[in-house]
Amino acid sequence: MIDIVQRGIAGDGIHHMEVPSLYFIHQSVVSDPISRVNKPSYCLVLQGEKEVLLGDEKLIYQGGNSVVASVDLPVIGQVTEATAETPYIAIMVEFTLDDLVDAIGHPTDRFVDGEIERRGLFVGESDDALRDVTLRLTKLVEQPEHIATLAPLYKKELLYLLSQGPFGDVLTHLSSEGSRAFQIKGVIDYIMGNFTKVLRNEELAQVGNMSVSSLHRHFKEVTTLSPLQYQKQLRLQEARRLLLMQSADIGEAAFQVGYESPSQFSREYARLFGMSPRADIRHQRTGTSSE
Predict the structure, then answer these.
(1) What is the structure's pLDDT at 181?
(2) Which sequence ranges are marked TM in the entry (predicted)?
(3) Is the model's pTM score more than 0.85?
């Protein structure tokens, strides 16, 4: 798999391959912390090491680990072990709820308010079956004539195997209408589509068909964040992208993501990313954070 990745890409980054939903990740140097939204996905780390912050929790990915994100999660990640000779390399397969339902169906068990929730991002050891199906999916990059027929079958097999593993209950609950995980995903999808707007806890609780207190408890169990903290991270990550990629000025970026007060925006930006917007963007572009 390492050989296929290195033959299939031209340099560092997250590369979307011709196989639908398949990404090759390659990083040859230790990176600065990068913020992004982890979409529902399966990732097999082939070599190197990466640290990811989900809220205040730190997860470490190493070669041989399987990493599964069951819902959209704003994270800050940093490759901590990589060299030109031994780069960080991983293979990622994104999936949707429809993909999951196609692979494992809608379980018929009824879920109640007391069910135990699990984090929406978890790390474990890969097994032979997961490595085998990931290898077959990866090989399709060099067998384009087979992609249309075999890629959907391999992806379905991958999701089925994940549902049978130690964290399968997370994916089973997610695909089960009426479960708390299914309801929390609905709230997450709503926030993702409306994060620049003013959202209130009562509105989000109504979307999830639960009380405000229940929403907070279950949402935090899955994401480590409250719903409004989750929204704030989405806003700040999008603002950072606007500042870096589109050269927006600070006030414009703040307004576009829903802030009315540039000073509040700057305070919350510095709290999340460790420096002011101006210093952070200068650091991203030049490697210096001098004000």
Answers:
(1) 85
(2) none
(3) yes
